[in-house]
Each structure stands twice: as C-alpha cells, then as structure tokens.
Amino acid sequence: xxxxxxxxxxxxxxxxxxxxxxxxxxxxxxxxxxxxxxxxxxxxxxxxxxxxxxxxxxxxxxxxxxxxxxxxxxxxxxxxxxxxxxxxxxxxxxxxxxxxxxxxxxxxxxxxxxxxxxxxxxxxxxxxxxxxxxxxxxxxxxxxxxxx
Length: 148
Hints:
single chain
C-alpha cells in the first residue's frame, strides 16, 4: 500500500508533498482547458519538476485554448490491484519562449506517446493541488432491516 489510512477509511487526503511525489513518478495525465464557452479535456504526456508541470505539444486546439484562457486543470492518476490515487492541479498555463525556460523544460525529459514532432513547451504553475489515495474494494452491503 502506498499510504496508510487512519481508522481504515477508504479515502485519504494527501499532503501537497505526497501529491507531488506521485506526480514526480507519473508520465500521463489529462489537461482541461476552456475557451469561448467550450470545455475540452485531452490526454497528455507531462513531467513535474520544481513544483511545476511541463508539457510538450504542437500548435493546435489545446495550445490555442490555453493561450486564450490560461487557467487550466490537470489530473493524473494511478490504479493498482487494491489501491488507486488521483491528483488534480489547477493553475495557469503559459507557452515557454525564452531559451533558458525551454532548456529547463527539456531537462525534465518529457516522453511522448506518439512519434510526432512536438516543438512547443508549456508550463503549468499551480494555484492549487489536491490529492487523494483510495483503498479499493466492494461496496458494503446495506441492510434493509428496519426497527419498528
């Protein structure tokens, strides 16, 4: 088990440090953007470093959306046989333009799923982070007996 739970509660709220530790070892998540009254969510590769998230992408819809409306949400999770976790970050995204910032993002070594050229680096600076750890199991049986 990744984390101990108090009083055998199935859900444990993670500390910021625990949430970052999980993100440091994850590579895939989902980016939620909003622009022109439309919401969008896409799977994306990422890396965390120095309390920030780094993405590598190509020009297109998600890049246009986060440029128009830089407030984003990001979620990553992991599911094992008897436990799972989820971390949600809300923050501000921006395209990296300066060579020193791009070098920092490149050092994070983002691995991509698709064999396509991705030339744009994006940084997400968090305004909040929330993590949960779950002990998986069957739903408890409910009794229908009533006291009369």
